[in-house]
Specification:
The chain contains 14 helices and six strands. It is of the alpha/beta class. The protein folds into two domains: about 90 residues; about 170 residues, Trna Endonuclease, Chain: A, domain 1. The chain has a six-stranded mixed beta sheet. A hairpin with a 4-residue loop joins strand 3 and strand 4. Helix 1 runs antiparallel to helix 2, helix 1 packs across helix 3 and helix 5 packs parallel to helix 7.
């Protein structure tokens, strides 16, 4: 006897259809809200730029610009606040003025990117270096950085740390032509890992850092930069006679290659470099696919021995790098001193080479 497929009860079908309908309408409303928010945000940023322009134009008519400008902004704040409510404090009007001065008429279209909120712009325009401002604007828009991520990256000198890694084309970067297309372009020094919540101490173990990275993987990927995807931890590479384990393995879709990370809680040694060199060679031989570029190895260490860097394969290798990591967010002064020290060491190494 042939069994017939039973139709769903009317009530069940109605429930399924209602669920689909509800989901579709939610999607429509969510998209509409996002579009409305983007339109409002774009209009507000545009209006702030226009307000800044008018303030500057008016100031230029005053004989004593500083005094006249201060008085003008106070009076504007009072009048606008009475009519439009909060949002037009003296501090905000000064921000609007600075927004226009940072991005004058010929840069207006570039500055008023719809992807960026006023909070983004307010953070970026406080960056003194024009090339750094350009970098943060492009990355914040292109990578969908939240204002919190942008602020963290500015405060941790994300851009400057990219420039102190080995073999950076500094002249091109300073001219605003920084394009990441080489392995060294993706390496920072130092890496700032304050989000791991581990105090800087001699008792820190490599497995603790590794575990903390896995627990904060999204933040670690943001610190690593563009194009990184997590593959695995304690990744096993096996030969006919032995098994080896790499702390962390990633794949970078922009470089089209695997990236191996070895964590060292102590000072860099030549044994660490030799071990990473072996890992990279093995990975290229056993895991790399025909369409992949050569594997990159990155040793993250608490201290870097410049003698080891100078007299090991690190000096000439385009695949192996060593960078320091910091477990706390350094002060601005500490980072400036460290970055300047790294630049000096790079110049010294080039002179000796």
């Amino acid at each position: 006897m042939t069994s017939k497929k039973r139709d769903k009860p009317v009530a069940t079908r109605s429930k399924d259809l209602f669920g689909k309908l509800l989901g579709d309408i939610r999607g429509i409303l969510s998209q509409a809200r996002q579009q409305a928010y983007a339109a409002v945000n774009s209009a507000m940023v545009e209006s702030y730029w226009q307000i800044g322009r008018r303030i500057v134009e008016e100031e230029q008519h005053g004989q004593q610009r500083a005094e006249y400008g201060a008085q003008l902004i106070r009076e504007l704040s009072r009048g606008l606040s009475e009519e439009f409510g909060s949002g037009f404090s003296v501090a905000n009007l000064k921000n609007f003025r600075q927004f226009y001065l940072t991005y004058p008429e010929d840069e207006k279209g570039y500055a008023l990117r719809s992807q960026l909120s006023w909070t983004h712009h307010r953070l970026i325009m406080r960056v003194d270096n024009p090339a750094a401002r350009d970098y943060y604007m492009k990355e914040a828009a292109g990578q969908n950085w939240s204002s919190r991520v942008l602020e963290r990256n500015i405060n941790s000198f994300y851009y400057e740390r990219l420039l102190t890694a080995p073999d950076k084309r500094t002249a091109l970067v300073e001219q605003g032509a920084f394009v990441q297309n080489q392995p060294s372009d993706f390496i920072k020094d130092p890496y700032v890992l304050e989000f791991l919540g581990i105090p800087e101490s001699h008792a820190t173990l490599e497995r603790d850092i590794e575990q903390a990275i896995i627990g904060n993987l999204q933040k670690f990927l943001l610190e690593m930069g563009k194009g990184f995807a997590f593959i695995g931890r304690q990744f096993r590479i096996s030969t006919e006679t032995s098994h080896f384990y790499v702390d962390l393995v990633f794949y970078n879709f922009l470089l089209k290659c695997f990236v191996l990370i070895d964590l060292k809680a102590d000072k860099l040694t030549h044994q660490d470099v030799g071990q990473m060199d072996m890992y990279v060679r093995m990975f290229d031989d056993l895991k790399r696919q025909p369409d992949d570029n050569p594997t990159i190895g990155l040793i993250l260490c608490s201290q870097r021995d410049e003698t080891v860097v100078r007299y090991s394969v690190l000096k000439e290798s385009e695949q192996i790098f060593a960078s320091k990591y910091r477990l706390v967010l350094p002060t601005e002064e500490e980072l400036k001193v460290e970055l300047e020290r790294e630049r000096s060491l790079l110049l010294e190494a080039k002179d000796l080479g």
